[in-house]
Write a structure and sequence with these properties.
Elements lengths: L6 H9 L3 H9 L6 H7 L4 H15 L9 H9 L3 H8 L3 H8 L39 H6 L6 E3 L5 E3 L10 H12 L5 E2 H8 L8 H16 L5 E4 L2 E4 L7 H17 L3 H13 L15 H25 L3 H14 L4 H13 L3 H19 L5 H11 L7 H4 L9 E6 L3 H15 L4 E9 L5 H14 L4 E7 L3 H11 L2 E7 L10 H9 L3 E6 L11 E4 L4 H17 L3 E6 L11 H14 L4 E6 L3 H8 L4 E5 L4 H4 L3 H5 L7 E5 L23
Parallel strand pairs: 6-7, 6-9, 7-8, 9-10, 11-12, 11-14, 12-13, 14-15
Antiparallel strand pairs: 1-2, 3-5, 4-5, 10-15
Helix pairs in contact: 1-2, 6-7, 9-11, 10-11, 12-13, 13-14, 14-16, 15-16, 16-17, 16-18, 17-18, 20-24, 22-23
């Protein structure tokens, strides 16, 4: 126990039901703690290390929480993680550890030094805790962070800021290397992927040495504070949450979401404005034309637009509809097929007494959707039009002030090439559409307008037999891949189902490569007969732990949970001759990750590391879901995966995109990326 711990202080806090003071008393983090004073003085690295050594000598590496747990933990559990983290200076992760009754983390793992509260009751009101959040890039944040830590900015041109000034970076490849690591902060990026991204899939034979040289020069540029570590099979950049502007943006948006759910639109709007103020222009503006950045930039722009839409929702709840009309009018012109922005403009106009203008905005939106994709507006926009025509009282501000905003549908996009392909994709999507809040868009792209009538007739039975949340579209295109990316972006699609041909060739077709590179969502390439969910031994996933293997596992778990099917992970047996152990530990870790999130049975299957052995293991599968190789640009499917096409069951090859998959929790949609592997 800390020497300055006062039992009376704890008992007073418990008696007054003050969870923050209780927690701070329990952990020894009172306002007189030396760390706080050191933070205010801008302690040097040496001073911080000395303080940590002294802290360890007094208290040990961890604090024991065995005493008084029955009194403390019930109080803490009734307070949100965000409020506790703000008030104590601990990260949300470690506050959650404390709430579970585990041990208090060592202070070197805190995201900031503990800060004193102006009042013990501040924990009960999020607005009174705002002043305790360090602002990114501000003097106060610099004082709170450990001296010497760098800030990394990607919400604009790539930028690194030290204690006193910006840090000069090298040429295009060095900046691109840093950007790739930052987009995957705290996750290992393989050397193969770095080389592939840096050279747009055409890496030279010297790629390994080139990547090593870029990393070495980056470490020199960042100096003694370099946070780039070597971790097999590549490198990882280790950052605290307040070192990357994207992480700060995500936390502010998450806090705003909590404030909105708590019925405080004013705080939500303020937090979202803080988040949007972090943007200095287009993300990675100096690397926009790099091939690796295309999908990532698109995803970042989505996050900004989503935060903007949430801020507008909060402003509408606060009665600021007249102020919003001009802003929304410009946004709708910039994003004509984004239905949520159009709905917000219609509502703002209606509340401003401009019913005719609101209906005109709907008509223009319907024309844009029909002309661009052959799609009718979604159910939410159509319902809003009917409510405006009927002058529905529920649209009035006084009746909607405390009503939660409607969650947008989670969309799957299917892109068949012919009637057989339509059957394959719809059969795969069917169990996913049984889940609540899902929408299916089936889009058939043709080259000649004379094919449109036939395409529409082919799709019509899907609309008639499917659910109300199924929409169909047929349109001509000179660049089908680009238009499918545009459709996936406009409708916040979680999964693109692609009817693919010519997968047996060495390289993937050009339009498929474009779609894989630029799609913000996971892409599933479907081959073989339509899946029969009533037969087979479940969904089999060949799994080696690579990036796209995790995306394949997420899709398999999503399908398994919807269809009630077992998921089987197929890994390699041990190879004593090469000194390689079997994959059972890897499969066990993946299995635990799935079971933690969804109640799906996951079983391991081991096979020899040969194509024939894998084919034998997959023979009785209901469906095979496999991730693409990291070298898909140059090798296509690769020889082993290509052999899966000879198996009896249908096969799905998955490429992971930056947008969280359909398996991700709903709150993950405000994050740049999400993975079971995290």
């Amino acid at each position: 126990m800390p020497p300055h711990f006062q039992r009376e202080q704890l008992e007073r806090a418990i008696a007054s039901a003050s969870p923050v003071e209780t927690l701070r008393a329990r952990t020894g983090n009172d306002a007189t703690h030396g760390n706080d004073a050191a933070a205010k003085r801008g302690a040097t690295t040496a001073k911080r290390k000395r303080e940590l050594r002294e802290w360890e000598e007094k208290h040990g590496t961890l604090l024991d929480l065995s005493a008084f747990d029955r009194e403390i933990l019930p109080l803490i559990r009734n307070v949100s993680l965000t409020e506790l983290a703000r008030a104590t200076g601990l990260s949300r992760r470690y506050v959650s550890v404390i709430r579970r009754g585990e041990k208090v983390p060592h202070p070197r793992h805190w995201t900031s030094f503990p800060q004193p509260l102006s009042s013990p009751q501040a924990i009960g009101d999020p607005r009174r805790c705002r002043s305790h959040r360090p602002q990114f890039g501000s003097v106060s944040a610099g004082a709170v962070r450990s001296a010497g830590l760098l800030e990394f900015h990607i919400l604009g041109p790539l930028e690194v800021v030290g204690e006193r000034s910006g840090i000069s970076l090298g040429g295009r490849r060095q900046r691109a290397t840093l950007a790739i690591l930052l987009l995957n902060a705290n996750r290992v990026v393989s050397i193969d992927r770095l080389a592939d991204d840096l050279y747009a899939g055409a890496a030279p034979v010297t790629a390994l040495k080139q990547v090593q040289r870029q990393i070495s020069e980056l470490r020199k540029a960042l100096g003694s504070t370099s946070v780039i570590e070597t971790r097999s099979p590549g490198y990882v950049i280790r950052l605290a949450p307040d070192q990357l502007d994207l992480s700060v943006f995500e936390e502010l948006v998450a806090d705003a979401s909590e404030a909105g759910l708590a019925g405080d639109p004013r705080l939500a709007a303020d937090l979202l404005r803080q988040a949007l103020d972090l943007w200095r222009g287009d993300p990675l503006a100096d690397l926009t034309y790099e091939s690796f950045a295309q999908a990532a930039v698109e995803r970042l722009q989505e996050l900004r637009l989503a935060a903007l839409e949430h801020r507008i929702d909060a402003d509408l709840e606060l009665g600021r509809h007249e102020e919003l009309v001009a802003e929304l009018d410009q946004l709708v012109k910039d994003y004509p097929v984004r239905e949520r922005l159009r709905a917000q403009l219609m509502l703002a106009l209606y509340r401003s007494g401009r019913q005719a203008d609101a209906l005109e905005i709907y008509r223009h939106g319907r024309e844009a959707l029909l002309d661009g994709f052959g799609l009718e507006p979604g159910p939410a926009l159509r319902q809003l039009e009917h409510q405006i025509l009927a002058q529905d009282p529920s649209l009035e501000l006084r009746l909607r002030a405390t009503a939660p905003s409607e969650e947008p549908a989670r969309t799957i996009l299917a892109a068949p090439r012919d009637e057989a392909g339509t059957s394959r994709l719809v059969a795969l999507a069917e169990p996913l559409m049984s889940l609540p809040g899902r929408e299916l868009i089936v889009a058939h792209v043709v080259e000649d307008e004379r094919e449109l009538v036939v395409a529409q007739e082919m799709l019509q039975p899907i609309r008639e037999q499917g659910q109300a949340t199924t929409r169909i579209a047929a349109f001509t295109s000179v660049d089908p891949a680009a238009d499918l990316v545009r459709l996936a972006t406009a409708y916040d699609v979680e999964l693109v189902l692609l009817d693919t041909q010519e997968l047996t060739v060495t390289r993937l077709p050009k339009d498929v490569v474009t779609l894989l590179k630029e799609s913000p969502a996971d892409v599933a390439m479907v081959a073989g007969a339509p899946v029969d969910w009533s037969g087979g031994d479940g969904i089999f996933v060949p799994f080696g732990g690579a990036e796209h293997d995790w995306a394949a596992l997420e899709l398999a778990a999503w399908l398994g949970s919807a269809a009630g099917s077992t998921v089987r992970l197929v890994g390699t047996r041990a190879d004593p001759a090469r000194g390689q152990r079997d994959a059972s530990l890897l499969l066990a870790n993946a299995s635990l990750a799935v079971q933690r999130l969804v109640g799906v049975i996951v079983e391991p299957v081991l096979a020899d590391a040969t194509a024939d052995s894998f084919l034998e293991a997959l023979e009785n599968a209901t469906l095979v879901v496999a991730g693409l190789s990291a070298r898909w640009r140059t090798e296509g499917l690769g020889s082993v995966r290509r052999s899966f096409l000879g198996a009896r069951p249908p096969v799905v090859f998955v490429h992971g995109g930056p947008r969280p998959s359909g398996l991700a929790p709903r709150d993950a949609r405000t994050r740049f990326s999400w993975s079971l592997a995290a």
